[in-house]
Amino acid sequence: MRAHIITIGDEILIGQIVDTNSAFIAKELDKVGIEVHQISSISDNKQHILQSLAEAQETSELVLITGGLGPTKDDVTKHTFCEYFQDTLVEDPAVLQNIERIFKHHVNRPMLPANRSQALVPSKATVLMNKNGTAPGMWMQSGKTVFVSMPGVPFEMKALMTDEVIPRVQQTFSRPFILHKTLQTYGRGESEIANTIEDWEDNLPSDIKLAYLPALGKVRLRLSTKGPDKALLERRLEEQITSLKALIGDIIVGYDDDELIEKVVGSLLTNNNKTLAVAESCTGGQIAAAITAIPGASSYFKGGMVTYATHSKVELLKIDQAVIDEHSVVSAQVAEAMAAAVKNWYQSDYAISTTGNAGPSTDGEKSKVGDCFIAISSENEIFCEKFNINKSREDFIEAVKNISFQLFYDKI
Fold this sequence. Notes:
- Helices cover about 40% and strands about 25% of the residues.
- By secondary structure, the protein is α/β, with parallel strands linked by helices.
- The strands form four sheets. The chain has a six-stranded mixed sheet, with helices on both faces. A five-stranded mixed sheet has the order 14-13-15-16-17, sandwiched between helices. A four-stranded antiparallel sheet has the order 10-11-9-12, sandwiched between helices.
- A hairpin with a 2-residue loop joins β10 (about 210-215) and β11 (about 220-225).
- α3 crosses α4.
- The radius of gyration is 27 Å and the shape is globular.
- The relative contact order is 0.08.
């Protein structure tokens, strides 16, 4: 059972917007046992759309299209559908009623003819009502392939996928179970992990696949399998994970994509009734942002300071200027002083601090571009470690953030 996702829009192709629709659709299809065979982004051009529909029909049983359903002349998806299915547009009374409702309650201007034209749909289409917008979804079939067209507006598309498309897909197609289990690891690189688990990986059953998903400061390991018996699949995956934990259990901090290390750290703090504060320089508030993105963070996160300039370290955190002059602002001594000061300021149980050179220059500092110091302060000690991260400025910040959480996790 294979699916092809097609996103339509010149704005995607020129990089004006990022295609987040495909990621959402792929995840929802995977949950119900449908394998995404291909994802394509194409222009708002009738011939390009027709060609893509034909190519998708040759390889996939389900084709999902987003975009090109607006009321303006550059939106040609409906007309192209009619040509592909040898059909004509007709006005759907229920869609028109939905459009009138939206204009009456949510739009402070008269409905134009172009808005009314949104009620035109191919006569052979099953209409998927879009309660959040004026462009309906459309479900059509050619041979053994089902085509589903949805608006490109993400929140409209998501509602249609959840309320209309997925239930119909489940009723229409016979599907296997597709299961994934993702392990979150921190502290070792991809090649080091691969070397450690090489024998285990070589002896994986042929129907269980392992994928390495490296990122800055972390590596996710995803085990995947599929088949008709969900309970059997779950049991076999769990057996492999148990074997894997015996090899690298010390660097596994959580499971699946939603178990981020900042969430794991938050749970540890909550369970132990402890609190945390942060003082950030080179990470510019990214650690605090990651913490506060987790629901319930207010129960353990006291607050943070972005003391980016040297002056702010001296004035707010009371770092001794003589220490900075002697060791430089990017040093273990300053990182430790930042952690101790912010812990005292917020009266927290723990504190994290970061200071480093993200580049491209060092502003005359004694340390090199890529150098960073991360300090952890607890009741009894201050721990600091130095790293050199030879990455772009953006990647440097992301890596320091992830390593900070990993170090803190190790300490607590």
